[in-house]
Design a protein that fits this description.
- The protein is an alpha+beta fold and about 300 residues long.
- It has helices at about 10-20, 25-30, 100, 110-140, 150-180, 195-260, 275-300, and strands spanning about 5-10, 45-50, 50-60, 65-75, 80-85.
- It has 2 domains: about 5-235, Magnesium transport protein CorA, transmembrane region (Methane Monooxygenase Hydroxylase, Chain G, domain 1, Up-down Bundle), CATH 1.20.58.340; about 235-300, Methane Monooxygenase Hydroxylase, Chain G, domain 1, CATH 1.20.58.
- It has a 5-stranded mixed beta sheet, with helices on both faces.
- Helix 4 runs antiparallel to helix 5 and helix 5 runs antiparallel to helix 6.
- It is rod-shaped, with a radius of gyration of 35 Å.
């Protein structure tokens, strides 16, 4: 039976004590490299002489804070030993592989143990896509009521999260594909990924493909919400313009009448010397205004 050694944010001394002797010095420098920010470094899986070194990244959603952080998990694999090193960003919850390790069978080799770890990572990505879709659905439900600026900000955040996730998911898929295609081999010793392990990795590869397809769908959903927001803003602007035009029209007729009667002509001006001319002008103004108001209300312009 192979051995799985899982370390969470270990010190250099702890790493030296747990690494297999034959890979200790060459792998130590890679494992001691500090965790990078955001979605770096890129996931990879490479043969280094008599062992295989890999880097995996988990995109962990925090729905309550509307953000995603990245958890780095480095692996060193030989025929009979799997070493996993979790590097936790400051202030975040570390990734604990113990539930996956406890699911391993007594006769599992190190390659099969790595498959179970990668399969769990693939499941995390599928859950992440579902979480993204839920965030997008929630955003879509609030487009009608929330301020446009807030919606635009959240759309931008989701779009950036999606792009960062793609930059970690695609290399992870490619690394697993190299195992399925039997590209990764150690220089000496027993084979790390026998045929049955390669077949098992096909299942994890399919899950990663589904996650990639799900991200494409999420991108389309974000685009549809953005298009709906743009259409809503344009429609709201049209409604405002329509109301302003209606209000201007209500004031246009009274302004015209007052302008006509305000001309300084002494003779031959209708109603200028009429006793009820003043009341007549007010009656025309009020009647025209009421008529326009009723018309605009029927048209639902105001």
């Amino acid at each position: 039976m192979a051995e799985w050694v899982d370390l969470i944010d270990p010190s250099p001394d702890e790493l030296r004590a747990q690494l297999p002797r034959e890979v200790q010095e060459t792998a130590l420098a890679l494992l001691l490299a500090p965790a990078q920010h955001s979605d770096e470094p890129r996931p990879t899986l490479q043969a280094h002489g008599d062992y295989i070194f890999g880097v995996f990244l988990l995109a962990i959603p925090v729905p309550d804070e509307d953000r995603v952080f990245y958890q780095e998990v480095d692996v060193v694999v030989t025929h009979d030993v799997l070493v996993t090193v979790s590097k936790t960003p400051p202030g975040e919850t570390p990734y604990d592989p113990r539930p996956v390790r406890e699911s391993c069978q007594p006769d599992d080799e190190a390659g099969m143990m790595l498959y179970r770890l990668v399969d769990d990572i693939a499941e995390h990505y599928l859950d992440l896509v579902d979480s993204l879709d839920g965030e997008i659905d929630e955003l879509e439900d609030t487009v009608e009521t929330a301020p446009a600026g807030l919606i635009r900000k959240r759309l931008s955040e989701l779009r950036h999260d999606l792009l960062h996730i793609r930059r970690t998911l695609s290399p992870t898929r490619d690394a697993v594909r190299r195992i399925v295609d039997n590209v990764i081999e150690v220089e000496q010793g027993q084979e790390v990924f026998p045929h049955d392990v390669e077949i098992a990795f096909s299942s994890a590869y399919d899950k990663l493909l589904r996650a990639v397809d799900g991200l494409e769908l999420s991108r389309d959903l974000i685009a549809s919400v953005r298009d709906y927001l743009v259409a809503k803003i344009a429609n709201d602007q049209n409604e405002v313009t329509k109301r302003l035009t209606a209000i201007a029209s209500l004031l246009l007729v009274p302004t015209f009448i007052v302008g006509v009667y305000g001309q300084n002509f002494r003779h031959h001006f209708p109603e200028i010397h009429w006793q009820f001319g003043y009341l007549w002008s007010w009656a025309v103004i009020i009647a025209a205004t009421i008529a326009q108001f009723v018309w605009f209300r029927r048209r639902r312009w105001i």
